Hints:
alpha+beta; Ubiquitin-like (UB roll); 5-stranded mixed β-sheet; two-stranded antiparallel ribbon; 2 domains
Amino acid sequence: MANTQIAEEQSSSEVSSKTVTLKIAKFNPEHDSGTQFVDFKVQYERWTTVLDAILDVKEHLDHSVAVRYSCRQASCGSCGMKINGRPRLACFTKISELDSDVITVEPMNNYPIVRDLVVDLEGMFDTHKKMKPFIINEDSEITNTKEFLQTPEQIEEYIQFANCIKCGLCNSACPTMATDSSFLGPQALTQAYRYVADNRDKGKNERLKIIDESHGIWRCHFAGSCSQVCPKGVDPAMGIQLLRGYLLGFRK
Length: 252
């Protein structure tokens, strides 16, 4: 009976463990003229994420693979990349859910490539800072230790947009950013709305002045690609449209 149980466990293990081809983009701008894709055969279970597979390759097959990651639970936004052509978080994407025998991983579009799957996000962070992503208010209720109470309705105005983890997927999917490198981008514009919509904040006019320029909010063509790839349900496209309402006088 014990032998039968062992045989059943081995059979179950063989059925659950599958193999996929992982195609990893390899490119070092310091000495490579172009991107090359290297194929690796990796085993996976139904819970295996794309990040798990990449790290398995890095540990056992090619130590040189460059990949950025940290939390492994879709909170830090570090592991953004293109997976089968779509910007995704590698730690949040299961191989079994992709329904493909070939998984292609590439660096995100619209960012300078550092090496392989790692891109330079410094430009996005700089633009984010331009939006003044903090509460601007000289009221003593804000600046002192006194609590500033908000109603559920007031919180509802901005809380969805406060979920941004700055992964950069929205900017990568944005067609305007592909043609205009100076465009502020959906990440920054959405965060501008997050603070403008917060009733504790008094910096609306400052932020509206920043975004109301040639490479600002009016360059958005409302393709909606940014919202389709957001892993946290922020919906940048809606945030941008609501932000336009302030500039057009529909919102106060």
